[in-house]
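Thread: "does anyone have the structure for this chain?"

Original post by V.I.:
We have the sequence but no experimental structure in hand. Need at least a predicted one for the grant figures.
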Amino acid sequence: MPSRLLLIEGPAGGGKSGEARRAVREGAVDVIADYTALWAAMLGIRRLGDGTYPIREPGEAVSSGFIFYMQRAVARSALRSGLRVAVTTDRPGTAPDWAGIARDHRAGFEVRTVDPGRAVVERRLARGGKLSPECSLRIQAWYRDRQERRREAKVQLVAEGRIPADAPLTDPLIKSRVNSNQRRRLV
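Reply from O.Q.:
Generated one for you, tokens below.
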């Protein structure tokens, strides 16, 4: 079984960790390099009763940059050992970087997007009925990037005469083009 990197992307609170655990249960991956789980392990934090982690607070001793380096180190180590690794991220636009890591290790690469919708993730992450500033920023960044990719795809499709200029951004051809463009950028 060849090594493989599975990138699971989606908004904060979207269900990426659950998707990674499911991939392990199904035998599709051997190792998970989950950003939030690494953060929690560094600080000795456990999941809450509902399965979520406490919200990260500004000024914590562990920086996000350090956790990103750890995540990459875990993924590289797993790939060097010939394992299949799942990586989670809520940061838009990182797929080409992860594809490069997979390519460097002659590993397969796949992207899965887990996105139940903005209303769902906001409800999941609201503590006491209110989103933390960090959660709000991460969710905004994810959905802003998704909208920009859809707008770019729409411009391409309108220019090709495949859809009318007034087509909504939710048009299936637009979503298909976004996915196609992403796959092309990864090769």
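V.I.: this helps a lot. The beta strands are 4-9, 31-33, 84-89, 108-113.
O.Q.: and The two ends are 21 Å apart (CA to CA).
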